[in-house]
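so the lab meeting is tmrw and i was supposed to have these ready like two days ago... anyway. pasting both below. for each one the top line is the aa sequence and the line under it is the structure tokens. i havent really looked at them closely yet so no promises
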Amino acid sequence: MGRLRLGVPYGLLPVGLLSSYAKQQKENSPPEPVIRLVRSQRAGNIDEDDEEQGAKGGVHPILKVDAIRFLYTFRNQLTKQQLLAVLPLLIKALDDSENYVTYTYAAIAIEKVLGIRQNGQILFAQADVRDFAPQLLGVLMSKIERAGTPEKIAENDHLMKAAMRVIITARQTLIPTYQQLLNRLVAVLGVISKNASNPKFDQYIFESLSALMRFVTSGSPTTIPTFESTLFEPFTIILMQDIDPRLIKRYFLLGHDELIPREGKDEAYDEVMTEIEELEEGLEEALKKFEKSLGMKLSWWHSAVGTEEIYMIETSAGQKNIPKEWTRNGGTKVEAREKRNTAIKKFKFRIYNEFDEDRGIWLRAIRVFAKLDCLFSLAKSSAAIGEPSCRPKFVGEEEGDGSAWFDFKSLRHPTLCVNGSVEDFIPNDVKLGGDVGKIALLTAENGLFTGLLSTMSGCTPPV
């Protein structure tokens, strides 16, 4: 099917609105910055003015973001030379901007540009990014590190994904500077392991470490001891902590709410992927035959979204003599892609069924670990609180009817215990099970947990 791809830069609407606003604010000043940005946007370039000009009648951050979005949207229509020319401007927008939205969009655009494929091959080789890859990785890591807390660091997974893409693209060219990057990645991993709040960020940082180790050690085997000594200690610490399942990936990749089996782990999935690879090879052969018979340059347009119109033949906008019979495209590749999605879904349910076969064992294991988790939590809390505190006394089944119960005397909230100015603290007793009721009303009329409220307030709550 012949297909001409046309589009209107939607970003021109906010450009027009902002230029109108600037004209109202300052009628006597010529609108060159806005016009220049519109022109650069049409050419796929990023304006180099800094954000402070937005307050001086110059380029507003929204215009920068809009230009980056324009480039992101139409990246597949630009040549490799044009993309290489615009990458330094994207890096500058990433580095110079303090605006969260601006540098995030810049990181997204960089990752997407470096991930472009043409004819099934990655467009950019390691030689193409050799000159700016270390600088770009340094900028990305600085943006990640300055967030501070584990939650804030892991919040922006787009930055980590961009760093992963740069490492995968740069490969062996990172050997001269790999050690500094390795240390920074390990430091970030140590911080986020304290509170793994974003599975995507966790995945990208592990993929980054894996790619860095793979490419650097393959190009320079003498670096293996450095990786071993650098990674052993932090990984040991993580494994000794309470393991978050989002930090440990073993047999399959976890992403986009799908369980994707690794190669060799699921026969049905491997068969479908082999079929897809064979069909892609057939597509390339068919494309060459079309080019030879029609005498024109053709390429595949690939959406990579869903299963509809995944591959279509693309021609230039001015191409003539397009065959009239090109009215539909075959559904073979669509069918294979749908088989892949079905295989992934079936794999997930097969995993569930395997667990379900030994449900009794898993249920007992969960109960044991749940009790151990409670015991360890109580022990850690008691040791960390200091005085006044006590360690709970665990009694046998002979005291009671064999069911679970607890009996706490003189409960105190730890924040009030360490406050020396609180002299009239009234402790509270809480008992549940045994010779009293097994069910307690946990909320008062205002929705607060009554037992917790009593220990925090230091007084008996009103009835």
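ok protien two:
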Amino acid sequence: MAEQTTSKTLLVVSVNTDFAEQLELAPGLREFDIFRARTNEQVISWFDRQRIDIVFLDFENFPPQEINLVDYIKRRSAHTEVVVFTTIHELDMATTALRSGAALYLIKPVATEDLRAVLKKLSGRLQRGEEYLE
């Protein structure tokens, strides 16, 4: 069974270590327990062991079929908010990601202030969801 935590969790899915490190060092992320995954198998493993609140999914080096990962995450954990990051300006990919349940589809680079705004918005959604369930 997945371990329960009191702080919010952020899973950064990226083969780009610079992107993951940038996120870990960004102000405003310190309230999150941050985990990393580089493969689908690692993502599945994290969901087996841990409640994940937000996923930052970097599609930069993933083939387009990896969009199914959004669907997997949302089926596995409906409360999890997924944000897709990419350098690809592809309307079909964005539409598929959003229809699969991604909260946002962002084109990189994304400014640190914008990351903080995204996390604030998603944290609010998570908080409202938790209050609703109580």
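from a quick look at the 2nd one: The beta strands are 8-13, 32-37, 54-58, 81-86, 104-107. The helical segments are 17-25, 40-49, 68-76, 91-99, 112-133. will dig more after coffe
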